[in-house]
Write a structure and sequence with these properties.
Structural class: mainly beta
Number of strands: 49
Strand order of the largest sheet: 3-6-8-10-12-14-16-20-22-24-27-30
Number of helices: 1
Oligomer: single chain
Largest sheet: 12 strands, parallel
Strand content: 35-45%
Distance between the termini: 128 Å
Low-confidence stretches: 1-13, 16-20, 25-33, 533-561
């Protein structure tokens, strides 16, 4: 089959007529060449271009554009391009896939089917259909890749489907299509009832699945009341890889937000997930409620949007990033597990019911100002060195396992706050780490305010830092609700025991009466450090100077008497 070579031509346009198929093995482009291919479609007859040679490149070093026209008759197919050749490439070309213009008509498309075929650095725009037609789409099958392409899937109005990109494992003996490192934008619907642009990751079975690789995928909200936002969906055994997944809110009241959805047995890899409440409509959201029973693990979660757990568990932190989530996480039976070495901070009022586990190092800080930062369930801290802290409220029971740390304060050690909890239980060798810099709870010293029982279990009381205290200060480091007596003592500190830290000497009581009305843990300052010599010498000199001045004034008064 002959190759086609274009040299020394400034520009040209080829319109491929309906029912015509153009097969290309190779194109050599001169610098500055402008090419414009239009694949026509009339009367329901589509046209095709097949890129079959291993060196076939749709655009290289020139301005090359392709328009694939959608079907214009009821049920008609759209014009398409197929990258069939192994390692065939879209190069740096620009593709526009138009939507179908009649009921059930297909949109124009670009299809990567050859093993290792690639989108290169090409640009793709997939537009919605009209008159009930399907949207334009780009599809990656076999072991093809989107490489470093730029892809935009536009949302539609009520009369047509949205633009679409699909990654699948069709044709692969193992593995499947990978997104590579593209930039993909799924725009929201533009009219009431319109759907947003979409990106799908699919699989054939557990060994043949697509992955999002290192893609950056942004799902924008709808732009009209009643329109849905753009979405990214993981089906089958597909994987989010190390992608960055973003969901923005609807731009006007009543508009749906962008969404990130996990179904079946799909996995989240180490993906960075960002959901935002940044519009007047519904917030962007992460939804794992439709996933098979079990858990979905992602790299990190941040933003102000919503998370729908259903009855499933969300594990956050495998990429070890430190992030803050201020939105609302919900789900009856749904739970949260913090993993990795980063810090995860919750500042919103969450409503999930299945509990929270802080695990495998790192820190979980609960800094909400309303509701409960960890929903209504229990909170358990596991694994050596793992930290739970914060300045907010945990309504459920809290268990601090052996060798883990409870450190009140918005950032734990080095900050002071009151952390409110349900029943509090320490395991042996657990650590209660506090900062003491004055006698005002939450402002200058750390406190845990407990509603429920307190069991110390021989945990270690750790004074992380101490300063600015005076003899007679009383510090209620655990303020109980007054109903339940304190169970147990801190390691080596019996009732009334005295100990020293940072030059201060404290006496501890487990039955004190603070604002809670009794059964509080109090540290009483018995002695404080003596001022440094330079301080008290300077003070003595000042006092002597004042005394001398006063005597001279008194003598002058006597002389004038």
């Amino acid at each position: 089959m002959a190759s086609i070579t274009f040299n020394n031509i400034d520009s040209f346009t080829i319109t491929v007529a309906p029912t015509f198929a153009l097969t290309i093995q190779g194109i050599t482009n001169s610098s500055g060449l402008t090419q414009n291919f239009v694949l026509a479609n009339t009367g329901g007859n589509e046209s095709f271009i097949f890129w079959e040679g291993t060196t076939s490149t749709a655009g290289s070093g020139s301005t090359t554009t392709y328009t694939n026209v959608g079907g214009s008759g009821a049920g008609a197919g759209g014009s398409s391009q197929f990258f069939d050749g192994a390692s065939s490439s879209a190069g740096n070309a620009t593709f526009t896939n138009q939507g179908g213009t009649a009921s059930l008509a297909f949109g124009g498309s670009v299809n990567f089917e050859g093993a290792s075929s690639t989108a290169g650095t090409a640009t793709f725009t997939n537009n919605p259909g009209t008159g009930g037609g399907g949207g334009g789409f780009t599809e990656f099958d076999n072991t093809s890749t989107a490489a470093s392409a730029t892809i935009t899937n536009n949302g539609g109005a009520t009369s047509g489907a949205n633009g679409l990109t699909i990654f699948s494992a069709v044709g692969a003996s193992s593995g499947g299509a990978t997104a590579g490192s593209p930039t993909i934008t799924n725009n929201g619907g533009t009219a009431s009832g319109g759907t947003g642009g979409q990106t799908f990751f699919e699989s054939t079975d557990a060994t043949r699945f697509s992955t999002a690789g290192n893609a950056i995928i942004t799902n924008n909200g709808g732009t009209a009341s009643g329109a849905t936002g753009g979405s990214t969906q993981f089906d089958g055994s597909s994987d989010a890889g190390s992608a960055t997944l973003i969901a923005n809110g609807g731009t006007v009241s009543g508009a749906g937000g962008g969404s990130i959805q996990f179904f079946n047995n799909s996995t989240g890899g180490t993906a960075t997930v960002k959901v935002f409440n940044n519009g007047s409509g519904t917030p962007g959201n992460l939804d794992i409620s439709g996933h098979n029973a079990g858990s979905v693990a992602i790299g990190s979660l941040e933003g102000s949007g919503n998370v729908s757990l259903g009855a499933n568990k969300l594990s956050v932190g495998s990429n070890n990033n430190s992030t803050t989530f201020s939105g609302v996480m919900s789900g009856t039976g749904g739970s949260l597990t913090k993993t990795g070495t980063g810090t995860f901070t919750l500042t919103g009022a969450n409503t999930y019911t299945g509990g929270t586990v802080d695990n495998i190092g790192g820190a979980l800080f609960v800094n909400n100002t309303t509701g409960s930062g960890t929903g209504t369930g229990f909170v358990t801290v596991n694994n050596t060195g793992t930290i739970l802290g914060g300045s907010g409220t945990i309504t459920g029971s809290v268990t601090i396992a052996s060798d883990t740390i409870l450190a009140p304060g918005a950032t734990g050690n080095g900050s002071t706050a009151i952390l409110n909890t349900g029943s509090l239980t320490f395991g042996g060798s657990a650590n209660f780490s506090i900062d003491l810099h004055g006698n005002v709870a939450g402002t200058s010293y750390d406190q845990v305010s407990v509603t429920g029982s307190v069991s110390l279990g021989g945990a270690n009381l750790v004074i992380n830092s101490v300063s600015g205290l005076t003899v007679g200060d009383t510090l209620f480091i655990v303020e109980n609700d007054g109903t339940d007596a304190i169970s147990g003592t801190f390691n080596g500190l019996a009732q009334g025991a005295m100990f020293s830290s940072g030059g201060d000497t404290f006496q501890i009581f487990y039955d004190a009466s603070g604002q809670g009305g009794g059964n509080d843990i109090e540290l009483s300052v018995v002695s404080a450090p003596t001022p440094e010599p330079s301080t008290w010498v300077a003070g003595a000199l000042v006092f002597a100077a004042l005394a001398y001045t006063q005597r001279r004034r008194f003598a002058r008064m006597l002389r004038h008497a």
